[in-house]
Structure formats: structure tokens, C-alpha cells
Design a protein that fits this description.
The protein is an all-alpha fold and about 270 residues long. It is built from six helices and no strands.
Length: about 270
């Protein structure tokens, strides 16, 4: 006899589930939905990242292409410049080689001249050696000349002292004669001292005395002596002026004229 199993409706089965089971089932579904959302969100985020990476990659690729093009341009310019420099260096090297080839004959000529000069130097050294020997022999002559030179210098000092002494004596005589009223006293001094430093002054002041005493011909003669014998003396201009006055028959007018020695030696400090 067949067993009879009790029948339960579907509604009855659901109704028999416990609240805990229902809660776990709901939590499972929620977890499943959360995982699905998480996966979808992650995939979406990764797609955005991939798209962003693609954009960055394109920009980077473009930048790299620009840099590569720029570097290629620089490399081409460097190649061109290097080629030009190489050509210039080759040209300069060719010029230097040509100059070197041209200088070779001159160098040979110079070497020959140097050899000649060395020979000449050797000859001169031999001559110098002989000259030194001659100088050694002539040292005695040099000493003798030095002795004579010392003697001449001493003689020179004596002559200078004698000249100074005679000058002082002659000046004293000149000043004495000039103070004399008789013009011929100074005139005789001039005649006997025409080659001394006092000659122009003696001639001029003799003419002055004669002009003052109205002895016009002799006065003009003494003024003329100054122009003829001592044209570069200090008294030449005064003599010209006096001759003009005599020609105009003007009376004597005194003027201040100092003493100016003629061609006096520099050893006389205070003439």
C-alpha cells in the first residue's frame, strides 16, 4: 500500500523559513549587488585612466617627435658646420704646406749664411784675441798718456787762473781809463786791446766822450769800428743810433748803457 506523504504548498514552504535565513539571503543579495557595483565602478575608473593614459601618451609622443625633429635639425647644422670646418682646415693645411715648401729653399740659404757667419765669428774671435794682446802691450802707453793728460789739466788750471787774474787787472785798467776826462786815454786803451772782451765797450764809450765834446768825426769813427769789427756785440744797436744822430747833427743826449764784455769765457763768473 502506497504511503501517503503530506503535501505542502509552496506558500507553506516559504512561510516555514526562519527570519535568520531570510536575513542572510538578503545580505547575500546585497553583497552580490555591492560587488557588482564595485566591479563596474572599478572598470569604469580603469577605462578613464586608460583613456587619460592614451591622451598623455599621444601628447608625450608628439613632444618626443618635436624634440627628435629639433635634435635632428641641430645635428644636421652641426654636421654642416663640421663639414665646413673640415674643408676650411683642409684648405688652410694646403696653404701651410705650400708655404712650407716655399720656405725650404730660403731655409737652406739661411743655413748657408749661418755657417758663413759662424766662420766670420771665429775669425773675429781670433782677431779679438790678437787685439787683447796688443792692448796688453799698449797699457804702458795708456798710462803714459794719462800722465800727460794730468799734466795738461794742471797746465789748463794754471792758464785759467792766469786768465782770470789778467781779466781782473785789465778790467781795473779799463774802468780807470773810462773815468778819465780825456777821451783819448780810453781810445788808446781800445787800440791796444782790440782782441779782448773790453774792446767794444772801450770803442763805444770813447765815441761817447768824443760825441759829448763835439768831436763828431772821431766819434763816428769809433762807432763805425763797433759795426765793422763787433757787429754782434751788445753795443752795435747803440752805435747805429748814435751814427744816425750824428748824421742829423743832433746834440749829444746821454743814455744809460751798461758794461757788456765781448766773447768772454764762461769761467768768468761776474764780469
Amino acid at each position: 500500500m502506497a504511503s501517503i506523504k503530506p503535501r505542502f504548498s509552496a506558500a507553506g514552504k516559504r512561510d516555514n523559513k526562519s527570519p535568520v535565513a531570510v536575513t542572510f539571503a538578503a545580505l547575500g543579495w546585497l553583497l552580490f549587488l555591492f560587488l557588482c557595483w564595485k566591479c563596474t565602478s572599478t572598470l569604469s575608473h580603469r577605462r578613464e585612466k586608460i583613456a587619460e593614459i592614451g591622451v598623455n601618451h599621444a601628447e608625450l609622443h608628439k613632444t618626443l617627435q618635436a624634440r627628435i625633429a629639433k635634435q635632428n635639425s641641430q645635428v644636421n647644422r652641426l654636421k654642416l658646420k663640421t663639414g665646413t670646418d673640415i674643408n676650411d682646415n683642409n684648405t688652410e693645411q694646403a696653404k701651410l704646406i705650400g708655404m712650407n715648401n716655399a720656405l725650404e729653399p730660403r731655409l737652406e740659404t739661411t743655413r748657408a749664411k749661418v755657417a758663413e757667419l759662424e766662420t766670420a765669428v771665429a775669425t773675429l774671435e781670433e782677431e779679438i784675441g790678437g787685439t787683447r794682446d796688443s792692448l796688453a802691450v799698449s797699457n804702458e802707453d795708456i798710462k803714459s798718456l794719462e800722465t800727460k793728460l794730468d799734466e795738461l789739466l794742471q797746465e789748463k788750471e794754471k792758464l785759467i787762473d792766469d786768465y782770470k787774474s789778467r781779466y781782473v787787472e785789465m778790467k781795473a785798467v779799463y774802468e780807470t781809463k773810462r773815468r778819465e776826462e780825456d777821451a783819448m786815454q780810453l781810445g788808446h786803451f781800445y787800440s791796444s786791446h782790440r782782441h779782448t772782451p773790453f774792446a767794444p765797450a772801450a770803442a763805444f764809450f770813447t765815441g761817447e766822450k768824443l760825441y759829448q765834446t763835439e768831436d763828431f768825426p772821431f766819434a763816428a769813427k769809433h762807432y763805425g769800428e763797433i759795426l765793422r769789427r763787433y757787429p754782434k756785440s751788445e753795443y752795435a744797436s747803440y752805435a747805429i743810433e748814435r751814427i744816425e744822430q750824428l748824421n742829423k747833427q743832433q746834440l749829444y743826449q746821454p743814455q744809460e748803457v751798461g758794461f757788456h764784455p765781448w766773447r768772454i769765457l764762461s769761467i768768468i763768473d761776474n764780469p
